[in-house]
Amino acid sequence: MSRYLLAAFICLWTGMAHAFDPFVVRDIRVEGIQRIEAGTVFSYLPVKVGETMTEDKAAAAIKALFATGFFKDVRLEVQRDVLIVMVEERPAVSQIDFIGNKEFDKDALRKGLREIGLAEGRSFDKALLDQAEQEIKRQYLARGRYGASVVTTVTPLERNRVGISFSINEGDVTKIREINIIGNKAFKEKDLLQQFVLQPPGWLTWYTKNDQYSKQKLSGDLETLRSFYLNHGYLEFAIDSTQVSITPDKKDIYITINITEGEKYTVSDVKLGGDLLLPESELRALIQLKPGETFSREKLAESTKKITERLGNEGYAFANANAVPELDKAAKRVALTIMIDPGRRVYVRRINISGNNRSRDEVIRREMRQLEGGYYDADKIQKSKLRLDRLGYFTDVEVETPAVPGTSDQVDVDFKVKEKPTGAITVGAGFSSTEKLILSGSITQDNIFGSGKRVAANLSTSKINRNISLSYTDPYYTVDGVSRGFDIYDRRTDASLLGLGYYTTSTIGGGVRFGYPLTEVDNLGFGLGAEATQLGVDATSPLQYQNFVKVFGSNNTAIPANIGWVRDQRDNALTPTKGTLIRANLETGLPGGTLKYYKLTEQVQWYRPLSSTYTLFLNGEIGAADGFGGKPLPFYKNYYAGGVTSVRGYDSYSLGPRDSLDSILGGNKRLVGNAEVLFPMPGSGVDRSMRLSVFFDGGQVYGADEKIRLSELRYSAGLAFIWNSPLGPLRLSYGKPLNAKPGDKIQHMQFQFGQVF
Cα(471)–Cα(239) distance, rounded to whole angstroms? Predict the structure, then answer.
C-alpha cells in the first residue's frame, strides 16, 4: 500500500511540477512535524537554500521522505521562492501488550516483533502490524497450535501515539492422529512407522513432543524411510506423494504417504576403477558390500567413506570415491564400480587455533596428532579433534582444512574452539535404595589459569559414608603425556546400616599417582600412598571382626600401591552402542605398614549394536584378594555383591558368606556377569538418553576358605530403566531372582539416582 501511495504522490507532483520553472530556493520551511526534528527533514532533502529547485529534485525529495517511514503524507508547495515541506507524521508506538499468551513469554514475543521492525518507540506501520500477526501465528504453528488466532487492536493515544494490543487465543495443541503408508508390500506398516520420529499420541509423547507435526521432522522421516528401503535393496523405491490434512476443528492431523517399493536388488559384482594408488587387496578389504548380498546404500556409503579416509591418511586430502551402479532389471541385480580419484598429495602448512581466550595454546597444541609440515593425515586430524573434545574445556570443537591460496598441494588445519566455564561450585543430592539420601558438594577447576591442570575439593555424605577429598592433577607432567596427581582424603563408613556385621572405619590418607599413555586408547596408571585407619567394633560385631581387632589393634597403617590398566574403545562414554572397555587394577599394601594385602580386580565391558535401536551389552568382573607376610586380608577390604550395580533382585551387599548370626561378612573372591539388551524407551524415538533394558545377571562372593563354584552363583532377570536426566543419571530396575536359596535377601525394586543439580 505504501508503494502505491508513493507512486501516486510522485505522479501527482510530476504533473504539478510543470506549473513552475526551476527557481533558486530562498528559504525552506517544514510544517506539520510534532516528534520529528526539522533537521531530520532537511537532511533528506536533495536541495539546500541557495540551490536551484528542479522538477527532478522535487520528485526525489518526496521519494526520500516517504522512504524514511516517518510520514504517511508528504506535500511540497512554493511561495515566493520559499519551499514549504508539509508532512503528516505516522503515530509512534507507545506500548505493545499481549493478552492470553501462555505458550510464549511476552519478552520473547516482543523480541520477535522487534526483529521485523515493530517495537515501542518506532513509527507505526499498518503493513508491519499485519506482518506481526502472521509472525505470531507462525510461532504458534511451530508449536503445533494450528487453531491459534490473533486479534489486533490499535488504540490512538495523545501526542500522536498508539497502543497495540494482541489478543491471542492459543487453542489446543494439534496432534498427529494417524500416519498411513500406502503402497508397502515388503514390510508391515508398523515396522516402517518405527523408523519415524513423528508418531500418534502415546504415553510418552507428552515428554518427547513427537506427536506434534513439524515439516522438518516429516522431511527427516521421509528420508529415513527412503534410506530404510535402499538399505534393504529397493533401489527403485520412490515416494510418490505426501498429504498432510488437518481436521476442521484444527485438533487432529492425518498424514498419508504414498510409496512405490520397486524390486529388490542383489549385488552381482563390486569393482574398483580409477587411480587406486594403494594395493587393490587393501582397498577391497574396506568394501562392506559383497557379491550375492542384498544391496545396501548404508554399506556402500560406508565403503566409499572408508576408502576416502584411507587415502586421506596417506595425504590425499581431496580424494573422491564414487560408486557407479549398473542395473540389470531383468535379473534384479546391480553391479557397482567404485571410481577412485585421489587428487594430489597434500601437506599441512600451518595448524591455526582460535577461540581459546582462556586456555593456553600449548594446552591445545599438545593434543595435536597432526604435525605442521607433514603429510595431511585425516585419521590424525580426527584424533586431534577427539582429544580436544575429551578435555572437557570446550563446548564445541570445529576443524577445517582450507587450501592454501596459490598452491595445489598445501592446506592449513584450522581448529576453532568454543570455551566453556571449567570451574564450578556445585551442590548435589541423590537417593539410592542402599544409601538413602546422599548429599554432596564440590569446588573444581578443570583448567586452572588455562594451564590444563585440575584442582578439586569434594564432600559427600550419607547415612553410610562420608568422604572429604582434595586432589590435584597435571595431565602433562612430562611432554610425553605422563600425568601426575596428588590426593588427600578423609573417609568414614558405618557398615551396620548396610546390613553387614557392625563395624565403623575412619581413614585418613593421601597419595601420589602417575598415568602413562601407552596408545591412543590405552593408559597405564601407578599410585602410591599412605593411610591410617581407625576401626570400631563392639560385642555385636562378627567374631571375625573382633578377632582382627584383638590381633592387629583398632589402629592400622597401610602403604597402598596401585597399578592399573585401562583400554577404552567405546564410541560414547555416556550412551555407548559399540566398542569395549577393559579395566585391570592391582592394589597392594606394601611392607612398612601394619597391613599387607593385595586386591586384584578385572572388568571387561563389550557393546555391540544389534540394529539401529537395539544394543547388546555384556559385562564381566572378577576379583581376588588376600593377605601376605603372615597378615590376613583386612575385613573392610572384602568384596561384596548384590544390588543395582551387580546382581539385581538381591539386596545390596547381601551375597556371600555370613556368620552364625546371619551377619554379612563379604569375601575375598568375587565373580559377576551381566547381559543386557538396551533399547530406546517406546515413544522416545531414537533418543538414547532414556533407555530400557532386559537383563540377566549372575554373581557371587566367596570366602577365604571357599573355592569358586559356579553352582553357587545367584542369577536374576528383569527389566531396567536408565535415564541420563538433567538432574543426573537414574537407574531403576525390577529383578526377579531365578535360583534364590533359603536365607537370601530379596529386593525386587532397586534404584539409584542423583548427581549435581
Answer: 59
147-195 pLDDT tens trace: 888 888 888 888 778 889 899 888 878 889 999 999 999 999 999 998 8
Q: Distance from first CA to last CA of the chain, Å, rounded?
A: 55
Binned at pLDDT 50, 70 and 90, residue 305 comes out as very high
- Are the C-beta atoms of 695 and 666 separated by less than 8 Å? no
Three cell numbers at 128?
508491519
Are 454 and 446 in contact by the 8 Å Cβ rule? The answer is yes
The DSSP 8-state label assigned to residue 358 in this structure reads S
**Which of helix, strand or coil describes residue 62?**
helix
**pTM of the full predicted structure?**
0.59
Binned at pLDDT 50, 70 and 90, residue 232 comes out as: very high
Burial class (CB in 10 A: 0-12, 13-18, 19+), 541: buried
Distance (Å, whole) CA 70 – CA 21: 30
Neighbouring C-beta atoms of residue 6, cutoff 10 Å: 16
Domains and CATH numbers, the chain: 2-89 (3.10.20.310), 93-169 (3.10.20.310), 175-260 (3.10.20.310), 266-341 (3.10.20.310), 347-419 (3.10.20.310), 423-756 (2.40.160.50)
Estimate to the nearest angstrom the gap between the alpha carbon of 296 and the chain centroid.
28
Give the pairing of strands 92-99 and 161-169: parallel
Q: Nine-digit cell at 626?
A: 588376600
* CB-CB neighbours of 708 under 10 Å: 13
User: Given the DSSP bridges, would you call strands 82-89 and 27-31 parallel, antiparallel or unpaired?
Assistant: parallel
DSSP state of 444: E
Q: Name the packing angle between helices 215-230 and 297-313 (round to 10°).
A: 90
How far apart, in Å, are the Cα atoms of 403 and each of 342, 349, 365, 382, 400? 16, 10, 21, 18, 10
Percentage of residues in the chain with pLDDT exceeding 90? 36
CA angle 439/442/448 to nearest 5° reads 170
Alpha-carbon gap, residue 3 to 68, rounded angstroms: 13
What is the SS3 string spanning 653-697?
CCECCECCCCCECCECEEEEEEEEEEEECCCCCCCCCEEEEEEEE
Q: Tell me how far CA of residue 114 lies from CA of 18, 69, 131, 165, 384, in angstroms.
A: 43, 16, 12, 15, 43
Question: Among all chains, which residue has been given the C-alpha cell 517511514?
Answer: 69
Give the separation between CA 49 and CA 83, rounded to whole angstroms: 9
Q: How far apart are CA 87 and CA 35, in angstroms?
A: 12
